[in-house]
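Translate structure to sequence.
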């Protein structure tokens, strides 16, 4: 079953879709989308993954961070710290649902959403299993893309129609996902395309090293940043589903 729903974070409404399996209560997973992304993600990657996971016994909550997709808020206020707040609110909402076993929760993130998921897992012990897809380990690299474009005291810049706030750069310099993830004590699956041109494959190795033996690292041969082929997409969805079922239970 798929239900359009919402929850609150910071006094603003966060739009979401909840996928539930036939047998409940079930383990639950939140899905964190990437920078300028949304709860469906590119070529409906999150939709297909969530439906697959639910068909195999997992409850899934995919949601739009504040300022993105259908959620309230302005993108100019977007920071990684705010998105971690959204992710933790999503965990709380998912755990509160009668269809979900709140003691068996996981987090999955793509790209910047992988950075958010890593930080969330390190800060919130409700996360029992973690999956990172093409995850950004060094947020300062994102900030550096915009740093020179800000003129004088300007607080907002135009990035392909997105209003990027100066606060994103300042926050990205301060967020340390590799330090956060060291506090996470559970298992992790790290997937990354060998031809990713947006986030270096070495970021996956950095996350793996920070987890000190608690991560399974797998490179998807030839894959780009968002797994833009049927074969790559099937590989990341299948591996992620099997990992989550193994560590959260059916």
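Result:
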């Amino acid at each position: 079953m798929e239900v359009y729903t919402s929850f609150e974070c910071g006094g603003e409404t966060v739009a979401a879709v909840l996928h539930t399996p036939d047998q409940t209560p079930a383990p639950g997973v939140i899905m964190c989308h990437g920078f300028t992304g949304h709860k469906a993600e590119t070529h409906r990657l999150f939709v297909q993954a969530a439906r697959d996971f639910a068909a195999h016994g997992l409850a899934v909550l995919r949601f739009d961070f504040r300022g993105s997709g259908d959620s309230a808020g302005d993108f100019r206020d977007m920071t990684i710290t705010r998105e971690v707040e959204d992710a933790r609110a999503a965990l709380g909402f998912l755990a509160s649902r009668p269809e979900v076993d709140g003691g068996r929760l996981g987090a999955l993130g793509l790209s910047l959403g992988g950075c958010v998921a890593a930080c969330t897992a390190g800060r919130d012990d409700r996360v029992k299993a973690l999956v990172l897809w093409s995850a950004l380990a060094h947020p300062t690299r994102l900030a550096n893309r915009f740093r020179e474009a800000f003129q004088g005291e300007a607080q907002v810049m135009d990035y392909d129609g997105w209003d990027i706030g100066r606060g994103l750069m300042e926050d990205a310099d301060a967020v340390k996902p590799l330090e956060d993830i060291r506090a996470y004590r559970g298992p992790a699956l790290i997937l990354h395309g060998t031809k990713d041109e947006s986030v270096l494959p070495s970021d996956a190795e950095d996350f793996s090293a920070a987890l000190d033996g608690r991560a399974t690292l797998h490179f998807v041969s030839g894959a780009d940043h968002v797994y833009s082929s049927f074969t790559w997409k099937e590989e990341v969805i299948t591996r992620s589903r099997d990992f989550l079922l193994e560590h959260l239970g059916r």
